[in-house]
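PROTEIN–LIGAND DATA SHEET

This sheet pairs a single protein chain with one bound small molecule, zinc ion, given as SMILES. Inputs appear in the order they were entered. The predicted three-dimensional arrangement of chain and ligand is reported afterwards as a token string under its own label.
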Amino acid sequence: MSQIASKWAYTRGLHELGNGCYAYLQPDGSWGWSNAGLIADSGQSLLVDTLFDLRLTGEMLDTMRRAEPAASRIGTLVNTHSNGDHTFGNRLVEGAEIIASRACAEEMNKDLGDPGRLAEMKRNNDPSSTVGAFMAEIFSQFDFEGVGRVLAPTLTFEGELERRVGNKTVRLIQVGPAHTRGDVLAYIPQDRVMFTGDMLFINGHPIIWAGPVANWIKACQLMLDLDVETIVPGHGPITDKSGVRAVKNYFEYISREARRRFEAGMSVYEAAQDISLSDYSSWGDAERIVINVAALYREFSGGRTRHEGNLFEMMARLRASRRRDSRTRPE
Ligand SMILES: [Zn+2]
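PREDICTION REPORTED AS:
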């Protein structure tokens, strides 16, 4: 499969989608390089997600304020999920209402949503090891030291919640657990625009931190069933329903492939190495197949899969070995 085509430029910064809806994009969409959104109407504003550190989030807010007067005071922030690349800048909109699903709120400041833990990981990282080199590569551009604790939601919900922004209605639809435990879509029906957070990675491999994958496939179907034209993913270029279809196909494909290898008794790493990703060779971050196979194995075994070691370490190994292969393979 070639790259998913986009009629929108994939350049860093703010892109006006029309009618007061904006996407803020951070190419290349790889680890930590997330997108965000702004919805403005009649002097009111709603921000969808902050970025991975305070500097990046500050730059984004400055750009938004220059383009849109209603962004001078963000009234509402929606966090689509708990990962740091969508929440670590929350502090910069202090005073705003902050909305997230209840499950997202419970996950904030934990694991990869914990700025202190990431700062410590970076400080103690040994880049001479394979996993250390991987960590250095994916986190070197971000500054976790000044983030402190993530500003928590002031309002949580389960299922669905509607918010008015001026005369616009924004529908917040919980579709997780899938990528994380509490993923939420932000959908503006009258503009046929949707911000999906990390329920969509475009031209990069999605990553199943939580699962079950069936929820993710169901969420893709929901996106396909809604009346929507412009879709802003959590990572990668702006897309439409063709991007949703590609992600749905990917999950259906890796579910089938992982199942066969699970039944044949292959380990997570063996299966991750063995599954052909040639149809997805233009998608970045292929090492995420490790996390995805591990998540599927957990599901297949009813949560009883044995501990197979550090998944980041396995991703680092796979990434390094794929790089060696691509250097030695004749084109
Ligand atoms: Zn993300």
